[in-house]
Write a structure and sequence with these properties.
CATH architecture of the largest domain: 3-Layer(aba) Sandwich
Structural class: alpha/beta
Mean pLDDT: 95
Shape: globular
Oligomer: single chain
Number of strands: 19
Bound molecules: S-adenosyl-L-homocysteine
Strand content: 25-35%
Number of helices: 12
Radius of gyration: 23 Å
Length: about 400
């Protein structure tokens, strides 16, 4: 093991850092722990943003020239720079990425027995703009900023060194790439990416699509919330809306549900639900319905179908702040309709992964939905994203997943 005293001079691959100078007093948020610089905080006379290339490595400096850290800049983005390292001896470089990956891996190895988890959660793992999901020996990587895109070779080399993966897919299709002026693509970075991979969660097995297809991967963030289902589903009729490949529905069946209906608009996802039900020996108790979730709810209600447990885990309805009004209304309507197909004293598990819909707002609009249809709610449990999605306490955006377990009673 090397000690600090033995650490050689800065690694040779460390990039050259151009200075990025802030305006007076704009360093305070960074000193308090934040990692982002907004474009209006830059002293553009000293360091014009137009003089930088997207993703260029920079040293971020206070107005008096004192260094705050190294990272990267993107003149095209509102968040125009992010700090990756505050330590001058270990600036943003391939070897720093290796170090951060090892720290991230250490946490996951402590948390989980098997190699199925989110390995890197961006700022939450002090690797701004980088997301890595691990599927055993296959990695799915998202380079969500111009800085990480530019460091692609270093990121891949670092992943190769720390994990020796068999294959890596670059799932650079996230909408956040557009805010950075980056194209949305999916490419194989190396190896042969299999069509599907098998993962384990809470002792159950799931086959997950990876290559091809639009929606791929697994939502590891719900692991602990899916585990909560066990105590509510014994002998129950369960409705899993937006089921994708059956994370909730198959878990419910495996934990003793009498009958599960998984609804999704994607036929390919529902084929996987059936496969995953078989994989866990519960295929006799899991049915699928290909439909729009709202339409399915209306039809189920008209047919007087009732469920003891309804799970609502939709895609983000509010991706941008300007969608807040329409998205909020969609959550309200969806929750109201779900309550209308719940049996007496039923359980509603309702989630939102929209960062802009804060926990208090989700609680309020679910409550409003209940009042609208004359139901009373009891909040039984509140869930967050699983710990392989660590939250950076200074950066609210790293915390996004809300889950409520509610009992819904007639007024
Ligand atoms: N609950 C899932 C994650 C949801 S991903 C899990 O635990 O893994 C979002 C899913 O919603 C996708 O499978 C997508 O096909 C589906 N979807 C999106 N809009 C829909 C709609 N209007 N009706 C039904 N399904 C929809």
């Amino acid at each position: 093991m090397s000690t600090a005293a033995e650490t050689p001079a800065p690694a040779p691959e460390a990039p050259a850092f151009a200075p990025l100078r802030l305006r007076p007093r704009e360093e305070r948020r960074l000193r308090a722990g934040h990692l982002w610089v907004y474009s209006n905080e830059v002293d553009t006379r000293a360091t014009p943003l137009a003089g930088f290339e997207p993703g260029e490595p920079v040293e971020i400096q206070a107005a008096d020239g004192r260094p705050l850290g190294t990272g990267y800049v993107n003149p095209r983005s509102l968040i125009c720079a992010r700090i990756v390292s505050r330590d001058r001896r270990h600036p943003f470089s391939r070897s720093l990425i290796v170090h951060r990956l090892k720290v991230a891996l250490g946490l996951r190895e402590r948390l989980f027995e098997g190699p199925w988890y989110r390995l890197v959660h961006g700022e939450g793992d002090r690797l701004p703009g980088l997301v890595v999901d691990r599927y055993g020996e296959v990695l799915a990587v998202q380079l969500n900023t111009a800085g990480m895109e530019r460091a692609r070779a270093d990121v891949l080399a670092a992943l190769g060194k720390v994990l020796r993966p068999r294959a890596v897919v670059l799932r650079n299709d996230s909408p956040v790439r557009e805010l950075e002026g980056l194209p949305r693509t999916v490419e194989v970075a190396w190896g042969e990416v299999p069509e599907t991979v098998e993962i384990e969660e809470n002792g159950l097995r799931f086959r997950v699509p990876l290559a091809g297809g639009q929606k791929t991967g697994w939502f590891y963030d719900q692991r602990d919330n899916r585990a909560r289902l066990a105590r509510y589903v014994r002998g129950a009729r369960v409705l899993d809306l937006f089921s994708y490949v059956g994370g909730w529905g198959v878990t419910a069946a495996a934990r003793g549900a009498a009958e599960v209906l998984c609804v999704d608009s994607s036929g390919a996802a529902l084929e996987r639900v059936a496969g995953n039900a078989r994989l866990n020996g519960v295929d006799g108790r899991v049915r699928t319905l290909r439909a729009d979730a709202f339409e399915a709810l209306a039809r189920l209600r008209a047919a007087r179908e009732r469920f003891d447990v309804v799970v609502l885990d939709p895609p983000a309805f509010v991706r941008r702040r300007r969608d807040l009004k329409a998205g909020t209304e969609a959550y309200r309507r969806l929750n109201r309709m779900a309550m209308q197909v719940l049996a007496r004293d039923g359980i509603l598990v309702t989630c939102s992964c929209s960062f802009h819909v804060e926990r208090a707002l989700l609680a309020r609009l679910v409550h409003e939905a209940a009042r609208h249809v004359d139901r009373n709610l009891q909040v039984l449990e509140q869930g967050h994203q699983a710990p392989d999605h660590p939250v950076h306490p200074a950066i609210p955006e790293t915390e996004y997943l809300k889950c409520f377990v509610l009992r819904v009673s007639l007024a």
